[in-house]
Amino acid sequence: PNLAAGAEPVRLVTPVVYGTHLPGLGEPAARLAKLIDQRSSGGLILELKEPGDGTKTEEILAKVSDGKVDAGFATASFWAAKLAAASLFAGYPFGLDGAQYLAWFDSGNGRKLYQEMYDHAGFKVHVIPCAFGGAEAGGWFAKEIKTTSDLEGLRMRIFGLGGRVMSRAGTVTVLVPGGDLDTAFTKKKIDAAELYTPAVDERLGIKDKDKLIYQPGWQQPETVLELLINKNRWDALSEADRALIAGACRDTLRETLADSARLQTEAL
Q: Which of 87, 151, 177, 257 holds its CA 20 to 30 A away from the CA of 226?
């Protein structure tokens, strides 16, 4: 739909969980915004807000639901403490890879169940799986792991379901923000860390602190990135705008799936 002469563009203020400078995890939000802008001839704008620009990462779901922001670009694993099923739609231990997620979303019940999860929990959002962030690395370790006994008492930065698996195996899970990893390793507060995909880990310079990376990661074989739009805001959009957003998300899902293997391979 082209913008009628003099009409104001529709703006959706959209905080993102990952900075758009991060390859694979943050960059897809910028790619999606550009695609929507192009296809709507400037009539529909995703106004991205970088992390820390007014919204904390963990607040995105609640703020979108309450209508304090129009939309959010996130990954459901951030809500796993509130929503037990969230990890199923974001990436979980020994779970689906990108192609399997795509099949589930496009030909199975994936999208319907994804929406139902938020509806049943009382969140007023419309969810669209919108990009793949790639498989997380297995982790960075200060020393080689040769047997399961080497995990006993090992202090590891890892969260979510992967963290629960590792604590069963004897590690002590420690929550450290991504930006504090340097200090945590240097001061020996942690012996290991699972962070992001190899491409993002490389951008963040983790290899300068630790030399041992374990691949492939088992704890999150894929990362699904979601576009959340406030329910009332979504319902108020024209049918053409809703179709445009859905189509841009489908294309971004496929493009990022194709990109991811190259990004990780180059980084490794």
A: 177
